[in-house]
Every structure is written in structure tokens, then in C-alpha cells.
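[User] Once you have settled down, look closely at the record that follows, and write a paragraph about the fold.
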Amino acid sequence: IVFSVLVLCAVLLLLWLAQLHGGNGMRTIIADYARKDHTRFWLNSLLAVSMLLVLVVGTYVLLTFDPNIS
């Protein structure tokens, strides 16, 4: 059981770090290519909401996943 907890923690860490890495890259692209401050604000807001949604749903799926479902 300790091994499965460690694997779950590692998978959650991968999910969170990958999402942060991808979100930071998208934020950099938005900062480089969005010309207006208003556009940049809304794109960054949309990015933050989508990142949060993916993190919440991904974490929920990983914590409730049952491979032995019948």
C-alpha cells in the first residue's frame, strides 16, 4: 500500500508540474503576441481558468480511479 501511495503522489506531482510548465509557456506566448493590455488580460484569465479546471478534474480522476472496477 505504501508503494501505491508513492505512485499516486508521483503521478499527481507530474500532473501539477506539467500543467504549471505548460501554463507558464502559454503565458509567455500570450505576453509576446497579445498587443493590447485588454486582450492580454482576458487571455491570461481564460488560461488561468482552464488550467484550474484541468488540475481539478485531473486530480479528481487520479484520486478516484479504481482499476479493479467490475
Remarks:
- Residues 2-33 form the longest helix (32 residues).
- The radius of gyration is 16 Å.
